[in-house]
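Example for tutorial group B:
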């Protein structure tokens, strides 16, 4: 039986220089550092922007971790490993030690109702666990967690039950007092939650990844486009761009959805997108990721904002670098009209490289009457935020459109290509 997930609790990153990323998250991306855990062997820093929480784990070159990481097929005694307070022995609480040579985003932590039951059910269907159910407590209460290894490269999932915990983050972390003050201070960047997480996967692996998430966590296919083929996914395979996108969602299948108190006011969900590069076209961003990251994994995360113009403006003033499509994107007759029909100003979007993609109505004979009838999304991509090209962020504002900006992929491709050429990094390559 699958383990049903109720929501994303946080996403964790493993980096060699936490200081630098911390500075960027706070000063450029306007996240708030709200909880920390420091031991002589590790440093973990938690950042929040509304419901979007990143946990940054600092990778220490000097200490080889002997007590924690276990091969996926190890069998555990059926008893709990109990850690109390801040003096736990584990190097990274709520995660495993990543001996990863490059900076990586590697753990999407889900809240579940019953960790023990999820562990048993998932083990029963052959799932590999890296950490057995483990209890952590402090004066705020008790949390149980377990870490499962996914089928995608170095990605793992911490399953956590914090229903018996009253503190504002997790036991073992010191919560900083400025939390709520800082959080309220910056209202220009209206990021509310994680919109989607995109995996870069090798060729022909999409089906396998989908099956894994379906069987283990009850994910369901989410059709990106009305014309999308069930088996093929959304395919772009022309003009040097070869990309297969397939999306999944977990929320709607969740048993917990029926009983949770916020069921009427449906919590925003986060979709998972699998991006696979296709042969015969030029090299693309997925190939670059696989090469630089060394394995499949999380390539980018879309942050939902209700006002992309203000958010992108505030972030670029603070030093975030965004990709811009060629200037002609905004002046091409079709696009310019599309932008104006949606009620936006092409010049304003051009200032920050914001792309707009309209969903075509299912019945094209239906005439749109006002710009309120048009379903579209706006998105903008940051340049890689790690020193290697192993992760970037995206801002996305949705106005009725539920896809991922399929119509923008060509524009994104051209802008990445221009960037690569300018940087003389891979002047012969084209990247999507
Ligand atoms: O699927 C998404 O999240 C997108 O925004 C589309 C996409 C996927 C992979 C890329 O390298 C570039 C764009
Ligand atoms: Fe995206």
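The residue assignment follows.
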């Amino acid at each position: 039986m699958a383990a049903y997930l109720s929501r994303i609790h946080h996403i964790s990153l493993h980096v060699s220089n936490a200081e630098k990323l911390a500075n960027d998250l706070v000063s450029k991306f306007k996240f708030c550092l709200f909880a920390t855990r420091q031991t002589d062997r590790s440093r973990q820093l938690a950042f929040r922007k509304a419901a979007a929480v990143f946990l940054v784990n600092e990778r220490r070159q000097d200490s080889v971790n002997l007590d924690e990481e276990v091969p996926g097929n190890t069998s555990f005694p059926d008893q709990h490993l109990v850690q109390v307070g801040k003096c736990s022995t584990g190097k990274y609480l709520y995660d495993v030690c990543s001996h990863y040579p490059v900076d990586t985003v590697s753990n999407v932590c889900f809240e579940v109702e019953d960790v023990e039951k999820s562990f048993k059910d998932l083990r029963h269907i052959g799932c590999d666990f890296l950490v057995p159910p483990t209890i952590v407590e402090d004066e705020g209460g008790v949390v149980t967690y377990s870490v499962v290894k996914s089928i995608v490269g170095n990605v793992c999932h911490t399953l956590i039950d914090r229903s018996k915990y009253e503190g504002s983050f997790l036991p073992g972390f010191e919560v900083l007092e400025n939390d709520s003050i800082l959080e309220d201070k910056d209202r220009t960047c209206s990021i509310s939650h994680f919109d989607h997480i995109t995996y870069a996967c090798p060729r022909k692996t999409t089906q396998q990844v989908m099956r894994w998430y379906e069987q283990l966590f009850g994910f369901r296919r989410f059709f990106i486009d009305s014309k999308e083929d069930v088996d093929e996914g959304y395919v772009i395979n022309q003009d040097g761009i070869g990309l297969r996108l397939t999306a999944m969602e977990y929320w709607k299948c969740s048993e917990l959805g029926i009983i949770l108190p916020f069921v009427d006011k449906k919590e925003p969900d986060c979709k998972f997108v699998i991006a696979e590069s296709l042969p015969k076209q030029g090299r693309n961003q997925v190939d670059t990721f696989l090469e630089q990251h060394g394995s499949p994994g999380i390539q980018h995360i879309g942050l939902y904002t209700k006002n992309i113009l203000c958010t992108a403006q505030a972030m670029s003033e603070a030093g975030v670098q965004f990709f811009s499509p060629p200037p002609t994107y905004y002046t091409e007759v079709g696009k310019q009209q599309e932008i104006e029909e949606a009620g936006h100003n092409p010049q304003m979007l051009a200032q920050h490289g914001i792309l707009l993609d309209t969903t075509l109505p299912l019945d094209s004979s239906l005439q749109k009457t006002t710009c309120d009838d048009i379903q579209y999304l706006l998105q903008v991509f940051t340049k890689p935020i790690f020193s290697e090209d192993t992760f970037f962020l995206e801002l996305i504002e949705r106005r009725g459109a539920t896809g991922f900006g399929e119509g923008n992929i060509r524009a994104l491709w051209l802008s990445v290509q221009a960037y690569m050429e300018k940087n003389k990094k891979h002047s012969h390559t084209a990247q999507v």
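Confidence is low (pLDDT under 50) at residues 63-74, 84-89, 256-265, 426-430. Compare this with the pattern of hydrophobic and polar residues in the output above.
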